[in-house]
C-alpha cells in the first residue's frame, strides 16, 4: 500500500472522532453563551469576565494535530520504550501510594492551551496562564511553574520535552497520555487525553502487579 493510500486511510479513521470533538466544542460554546446571555439579562456582575470560544480555527488545528500525533505515534503496547489539571490530584495520589514499587516521571510537553493561542477560560483557582513556548527555557519555566502550582510529590520527577517535541511525537501524547514501562517494554499505553485518559486503569494495573497499597 502506497504512502498516499496509508495517509488517506488514517485520515478516514480520524475523521469520526475529530468531528465528535468538534461537536463537543460547539455544544460547550453554546452552553457557555447561553449562560452569559442569562447572566446579562439578569444584570449579574459575573458577566464581566471575558468569554473565550473553544470552537476556533486555532482549536480545530490543535485537535486535528492531536489525532495525527496519536495515529503516527512511534510506540505501542509491548514495543520498546522510546527514550525521549484535573487529573493531577489523582495522579499525585498514585505517586504517593506506589512510589515504593514504581518510578514516576511526568514529561511536560507542548502547551495545549497557551494564553496567546487556543486559550481556555481559567475558572479554577489553580489555573495559570502560559504562553506558547518559544524556546527550551520557556518550556522548562512552564514546567517549573506547573510543579510549584500543583505541589506534585517529590517522588515524581518532572522534565520538559525538547523543542522538537521528541516525546510528544514518539508517544502521540497530545494532549495527555499515560504509559507504563517495564523492563524497557511498554506494558500499558493509555488512551489519548483528555477524553480517553484513564488513571483508574493505571491504578488497576499497579494493584494487579504489586497489590493494593
Automatic annotation (TrEMBL):
Primary location class: membrane
Keywords assigned: Membrane, Oxidoreductase, Selenocysteine, Thyroid hormones biosynthesis, Transmembrane, Transmembrane helix
Entry keyword DNA damage: no
Protein localization: Endomembrane system
GO biological process entries: hormone biosynthetic process; thyroid hormone catabolic process
Membrane topology: Single-pass membrane protein
Highest taxon above the source species: Eukaryota
Pfam families for this protein: T4_deiodinase
GO MF terms held by the record: thyroxine 5'-deiodinase activity; thyroxine 5-deiodinase activity; ubiquitin protein ligase binding
GO cellular component: endoplasmic reticulum membrane
Family classification: Belongs to the iodothyronine deiodinase family.
Function: Responsible for the deiodination of T4 (3,5,3',5'-tetraiodothyronine).
Quaternary structure, from the entry: Predominantly monomer. Can form homodimers but homodimerization is not essential for enzyme activity. Interacts with USP20 and USP33. Interacts with MARCHF6.
Stated name of the protein: Iodothyronine deiodinase
Naturally occurring in which organism (per UniProt): Jaculus jaculus (Lesser Egyptian jerboa)
Lineage, opening ranks: Eukaryota, Metazoa, Chordata, Craniata, Vertebrata
Amino acid at each position: 500500500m502506497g504512502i498516499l493510500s496509508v495517509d488517506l486511510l488514517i485520515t478516514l479513521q480520524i475523521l469520526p472522532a475529530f468531528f465528535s470533538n468538534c461537536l463537543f466544542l460547539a455544544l460547550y460554546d453554546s452552553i457557555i453563551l447561553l449562560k452569559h446571555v442569562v447572566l446579562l439579562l439578569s444584570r449579574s456582575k459575573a458577566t464581566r469576565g471575558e468569554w473565550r470560544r473553544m470552537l476556533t480555527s486555532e482549536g480545530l488545528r490543535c485537535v486535528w494535530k492531536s489525532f495525527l500525533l496519536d495515529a503516527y505515534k512511534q510506540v505501542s503496547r509491548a514495543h520498546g520504550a522510546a527514550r525521549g489539571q484535573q487529573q493531577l490530584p489523582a495522579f499525585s495520589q498514585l505517586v504517593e501510594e506506589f512510589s515504593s514499587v514504581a518510578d514516576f516521571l511526568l514529561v511536560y510537553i507542548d502547551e495545549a492551551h497557551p494564553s496567546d493561542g487556543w486559550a481556555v477560560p481559567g475558572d479554577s483557582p489553580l489555573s495559570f496562564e502560559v504562553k506558547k513556548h518559544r524556546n527550551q527555557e520557556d518550556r522548562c519555566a512552564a514546567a517549573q511553574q506547573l510543579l510549584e502550582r500543583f505541589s506534585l510529590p517529590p517522588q515524581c520527577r518532572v522534565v520538559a520535552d525538547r523543542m522538537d517535541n521528541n516525546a510528544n511525537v514518539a508517544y502521540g501524547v497530545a494532549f495527555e497520555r499515560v504509559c507504563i514501562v517495564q523492563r524497557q517494554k511498554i506494558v500499558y499505553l493509555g488512551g489519548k487525553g483528555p477524553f480517553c485518559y484513564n488513571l483508574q486503569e493505571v491504578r488497576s494495573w499497579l494493584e494487579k502487579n504489586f497489590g493494593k497499597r
